[in-house]
From TrEMBL:
The lineage of its organism: Eukaryota, Metazoa, Chordata, Craniata, Vertebrata. Signal peptide: none annotated. It comes from the Eukaryota. It comes from Haplochromis burtoni. This is Cms1 ribosomal small subunit homolog. Residues 9-18, 27-59, 67-77 have a biased composition (Basic and acidic residues). PANTHER family: PROTEIN CMSS1.
Length: 290
């Protein structure tokens, strides 16, 4: 008891109080550390939520796929719509009666063709007037009977013609085969006159130039492309020309006229522009639509 009484009692109490305070402080320091440790766990939970949402979305998408397939099956089951076929020139002409060509047809064709290609002044010079035309074929004539009608004085005219590299009468058609057909039809009209074939098939242009230079020919039958090429090369002169007959009403197997074929129409316009219309204005050439 003496030893115990020898120690200062208040110092033991102070030490015990100080130790309690230190323990409380250490506990408080531990608590925030524990709190900070729990915070990342909350963040992990937040990051896990979008993954769950994605899984839910994937499940929803997988559930939605079968209805789309069913919709596609329903569409495929429906019969496809039929497209309307565009009518061609052949289809239109097959259901319509053929009409004989008239001067207005050629006038409109020339106007429309040169509308966007020439100036206003040039278009006026290329204008096809009513006075340029002979009577047109009413679809009752053969070539010989039509030529007899438009050239009643042919026998006298063909005797007066003595110029080389030129013809008095030009018949313009769409092809080489049609050229041969028309030459055969000239038998009862031409008399002593000579006819020459003017097309590109199997005949070189140089050979035709030499042929025209050597002899005197009264009638030329051919395609507008070769005729205009001969005029350009001065292998064929238009000085003696008096009649230009267009094989206007004839149709091929597809029921197309000469002017319905773009290439032939272009060549024809080139031929008219090369000097034919100028001589028509001088009243030296007349145009007939056969």
């Amino acid at each position: 008891m003496g030893d115990d009484l020898g120690d200062e009692w208040w110092q033991h109490e102070y030490k015990s109080d100080a130790s309690e305070v230190e323990e409380e402080e250490t506990e408080q320091k531990k608590k925030p550390a524990e709190k900070t440790k729990t915070k990342p766990e909350k963040r992990k939970i937040v990051t896990e939520k979008p993954a769950k949402a994605k899984k839910k979305n994937n499940e929803q998408n997988e559930q939605m796929i079968p209805p789309r397939k069913e919709a596609q099956d329903e569409k495929s089951a429906k019969p496809p719509k039929k497209r309307k076929k565009k009518k061609t020139i052949t289809d239109v002409l097959a259901t319509s009666e053929p009409k004989p060509g008239c001067p207005a047809d050629l006038q409109d064709l020339v106007t429309q063709y040169f509308k966007d290609k020439r100036s206003v002044i040039e278009q006026e010079e290329l204008k096809v007037q009513d006075s340029f035309f002979l009577s047109s074929n009413d679809l009752t004539h053969t070539l010989s009977s039509y030529l007899k009608q438009i050239a009643p004085k042919w026998a006298k005219i063909q005797k007066q013609h003595m110029e080389k590299s030129s013809v008095v009468l030009l018949v313009v058609c769409s092809s080489a085969l049609r050229t041969i057909e028309l030459i055969k039809q000239l038998t009862s009209f031409k008399g002593e006159a000579k006819a020459v074939k003017l097309f590109a098939k199997h005949i070189k242009i140089e050979e035709q130039v030499k042929l025209l230079q050597k002899g005197i020919y009264h009638i030329g039958v051919g395609t507008p492309g070769r005729i205009s090429a001969l005029v350009e090369r001065e292998g064929l002169s238009l000085q003696a020309l008096r009649y230009l007959v267009l094989d206007w009403n004839w149709r091929d197997q597809k029921l197309r006229r000469m002017v319905d074929i773009p290439e032939i129409k272009q060549d024809l316009m080139k031929l008219l522009e090369s000097g034919v219309l100028a001589r028509c204005k001088e009243d030296k050439v007349k145009i007939g639509l056969f």
